[in-house]
Hints:
With 182 residues, this protein is of the alpha+beta class. The protein has a domain at 5-106: Jelly Rolls (Sandwich). The protein has eight helices and eight strands.
Amino acid sequence: MPLSQEEIEAIIETMSIQHYKKGTVLLKEGQISTEVYFVLEGCVRQFYLVDGDEKTNNFFTEEQWVISMNSFSQNNPSNHYLDCCMDSSLVVGNREKEELLYKRFPKFETVSRKVMEKVFAEQQEIMSSYTTDTAEQRYLKLLKSRPDLFQKIPQYQIASYIGAKPESLSRIRKRIAHRLNT
């Protein structure tokens, strides 16, 4: 959707670029999300704490939106965490400024809806994978669709993301390597 100079300036006024160090927690379980992020550089991880174990369910990298949908849009306490799993540069927007932007430029509501639809579709795809695919299939899909993650993310977080223990991921990788070498 083409933007006028006035619209571009309004976006720039409502959002800021922030730099976060690895390990920075952007959102904790129980907090209400008031900000949305767009990753310029780096990686943000979404995870849950289950019986003291971190269960990773998403990684957001360059040119992806990071939105805690239920918390941000419904004003509910978050049931997950968002943290920077590497040094990251993020565009940060907040709810109040977003509402002012919508009032001034109603077409931004359409743009926002399109972004939300994209994020929701991606989340649905991830969720269906946990129902229909094995951990090995999820690993292979991740390797094919997001090979950059394997250079950025520790293996134990990759294992958590595909729903496996680190030892199981090691076995999966060995099986795949063996198949490739025979």
